[in-house]
Specification:
homodimer, alpha/beta, Rossmann fold, formyl-coa transferase, domain 3, 2 domains, 6-stranded parallel beta sheet, 12 strands, CoA-Trfase_III_dom_1_sf (chains A, B), CaiB/BaiF CoA transferase family protein (chains A, B), CoA-transferase_III_domain (chains A, B)
């Protein structure tokens, strides 16, 4: 196995910040040749640090080549078309309409290269009343319902700390690119692909969408409890050194849990024999469990309950997640030695294929790192021409 | 355009609850023929309602055919191999190891059909110390850091109301299937594909992963504020009829905001001229904005600030999201008339391709709805044989 699934797929990547960059990262990890194209002053993420490479950029652009190009300059537009002429895929997540303003919209580029798969990621998509809204992840979390369903019942709506819009949007876009690549095998034609952040988040509201149809009077936010308050136990419980999540999806789980925490009398209590009864006495159940978890470390809770077959997990801190032996073992977190940033742990690929080689994770490119290689070897420009492009601010 | 990207791709779908079902839903929406295979007593989601079809199942299984099959019975295993023999893809999200227990692991099935793409979704993946952990979404949220970074600084870790593990895991798995389909065009061989929920969630912690490397002393949870408290304004603000999210990513946004809320003096205040200054005076800034938002409806805030070019969004309730005119217009929410459940709004596809027809959204199958069609027309069984399978509890 020394092949990769997307070997020889050539991707021009205008992806920036999280959404587009993640989309092309996944293509890159699957074997595509991805060339990240930044404006001469760098993509927006670079403004987050005064010098060096921002950690986000390092983590989202491994294995890619990097060049600079000014799409506002006529010469820049020409060079861009030259790049696209032989490419398979273009990924971009500018605000909807930006590429058309550059004169580089899909209509134009598909004439340059009819086999091109043009992928556009955005907050709200190509059409519809919100299509021209600015859409950072927080805005998408508000509009898509994520905030309304997160947090405690007595508190205001709360954002989730992760960036679901960027990442759900990004991976749906990458999936769309691969669908289009597969279709192109049959048709020989490229096409326009899009995925919006709000669209991509929508299905993940599934439990609450179902609550809506069940006419339940569940509050929109249930803290750490089940989203329709329909299961008990189901919560995060305080342990000696943090919190643990525990839930029971069957009466057997409940009986095992009672045994594991030395409270057999609870398993014998008829009030708690069924999930319906336990839901009625949720507070009592939660108190009994927390009385036990408070006396144990997260690790003790995990090993006792796992041995008993009860679903449980430690609430891990970000630092613990970055060093999680499980993620390390799966090469989902890979420590690289970055030329300017030193040792940094970057994400591996969540997509694993038995017959497609795992990516060799090369450090993200510095701004314009591969300018000479790409403009000379790929577009056939002379060193003098490249130097002139540089001094003219085109690259 | 009457083609679909995955036309003629035949998928056998053991996907259940959210993760596997969503993965195959995306394949189905892209044109694959998906046959959902449930045990004779139905997949676990069905136990959520006493009669009829659970809304979650309806929403995640549109356009699929549905059959029943008991994989614990010898005859069931044989029939399953017959189904897999001519299939392109198998999707399953049983606990890791379950298919091997059935005698239907990848090693066995790849002998039956070497071109088979076998896709396994799970909480923690195929290998590593946590691979045999039970993994519902809450457990994954705990272990992956989502809970630690969600909620108010003074509160315990909080889950996000959406199910990031199930849906990020599911769409990464679908993306892996498409990568393998593309590779198979070259090699003629199938392969084993996997995506775990914890792996798939990891990159979405991006802001916090970067905070870790920035050595910032930001608390793990920042409520609705920026995850590294590095931007102001950035928050959810109370309006007359709910909440609105507002943020400024540039000084221009800030100046426009001050103008829009009739507080030009704030724009002139040197303390607030730069983001660094605004961050220092975050409370003052937030109070000033909220003083204004409290006097307006979410819609008024949205139209005033959007006109001024300031990023903002309404915190929408689930009911509002289900009826969001934008999502309706984009056919991301589609009302269908389900034979038993009546009118219900199901998700459309977040993946849009210009030359692959949008899915015709057919209602999800009832349990075993297509048994006769599949077992007779596809496997060539007689009506008598099908009847016997039914009475023997095989289907």
């Amino acid at each position: 196995m020394d092949q990769q699934a997307l070997e020889d797929v050539d991707v021009i990547d205008l992806g920036q910040i999280y959404n587009g960059a993640y989309s092309s990262l996944m293509l890159s990890y699957l074997g595509a040749d991805v060339t990240k194209v930044e404006p001469p002053f760098g993509e927006p993420l670079r403004s987050r640090v005064e010098e060096g490479e921002p950690a986000e950029l390092v983590m989202l652009n491994s294995t890619k080549d990097g060049i600079t190009l000014n799409l506002k300059e006529e010469r820049g537009k020409e060079l861009f078309k030259d790049l696209v002429r032989d490419a398979d895929v273009l990924v971009e997540n500018f605000a909807t309409g930006t590429m058309e303003e550059f004169g580089l919209g899909y209509d134009t580029l598909s004439e340059v290269n009819p086999e091109l798969i043009y992928a556009h990621g955005s907050g709200f998509g190509e059409d519809g009343p919100k299509s021209d809204r600015l859409a950072m992840d927080l805005i998408v979390q508000a509009e898509s319902g994520v905030m309304d369903v997160t947090g405690n019942p007595e508190d205001p709506p709360t954002k989730t700390g992760i960036a679901p819009g960027d990442f759900l949007g990004g991976i749906h876009l990458a999936a769309g690119v691969m669908a289009a690549l597969y279709q192109r095998e049959r048709t020989g034609e490229g096409q326009f692909v899009e995925a919006s952040m709000q669209d991509a988040v929508y299905p993940s509201l599934m439990s609450q969408l179902a609550n809506y149809y069940d006419d339940s009077d569940t509050p929109p936010r249930t803290g750490n409890r089940h989203s329709s308050l329909a299961k008990a136990p189901y919560n995060a419980y305080e342990a000696e050194d943090g919190y643990v999540a525990i839930l029971c999806t069957s009466d057997e789980h409940w009986e095992s849990l009672c045994g594991a925490i030395d409270r057999e009398e609870l398993a014998d209590d008829e009030r708690f024999a069924s999930n319906v009864g336990r839901v009625e006495h949720m507070e009592t159940i939660d108190d009994a469990i927390e009385e036990w978890t408070r006396e144990h470390s997260r690790e003790e809770v995990g090993s006792v309950l796992s041995a008993a077959g009860v679903p449980c997990g430690s609430v891990q801190s970000v630092e613990e997640v970055i060093h999680d032996p499980h993620l390390e073992r799966r090469e989902m977190v890979v420590e690289i030695d970055h030329p300017t940033e030193g040792e940094i742990r970057v994400p591996g690929s969540p997509i694993r294929l038995s017959d497609s080689k795992a990516p060799d994770i090369e450090p993200s490119p510095t701004k314009g790192e591969d300018n000479v290689e790409v403009y000379r070897d790929r577009l056939g420009l002379s060193d003098d021409e490249i130097e002139r492009l540089r001094s003219d601010g085109v690259i």
